[in-house]
Amino acid sequence: MSGRAPTYRVTDNKIMPSYLNSYSADVQQQANAMLDANRAGTWLLKRYPESHQLSSEQALYDYAQTMKNQYMRSSSPISKVIYDDKIHVINNALGLHTFVSRVQGKKLKAKNEIRISALFRAVPEPFLRMILAHELAHLREKEHNKAFYKLCAYMEPDYHQLEFEVRLYLAHLERYGAIWR
After folding, report:
1. CA distances from 81 to 78, 110, 133, 135, 138 (A)
2. Domains of the chain and CATH, by start
3. What are the pLDDT digits (tens) for 33-44?
4. I need a surface site. Which of 5, 9, 17, 120 has the fewest CB within 10 A?
5. CA distances from 173 to 4, 44, 120 (A)
6. Do 162 and 156 touch, CB atoms closer than 8 A?
């Protein structure tokens, strides 16, 4: 899941984070009211009281590989899945899927890598699963089109709700800091 630099827009004299721009005005208004009242963190913490335990990169790789094997067996293999400290700062992305092709002798070698922003080392497991579903879907669908989101929802049935909650968390994180540690 990637995005642009955090930007804000002014609506009704209120500053709204860009993480929520793709949602309806009504949803944005409700989310902004929760953020203004500092209730978003409490709401998220009530829904997800604990963060995941996948702090090592080997555990993250194994988790992603299990998801891939369960839902996308015939897709290209993934060579690396890591937490990346630079993703959020440089690319303002939650995760990145990279595809590298190289010629080695007479063969074309391809590698798929997934990099997850290090800020997701301490979030609930469903958030991490949603991000991995997004990045794994890029193995088959490069563009964010209907087929892409259908594949995301196949791997994670609550994909769209979780994406909203991750975006709400990011807006909360910018204003108030981390919830899970």
Report:
1. 8, 15, 13, 10, 14
2. 8-176 (3.30.2010.10)
3. 999 999 999 999
4. 5
5. 16, 12, 12
6. yes
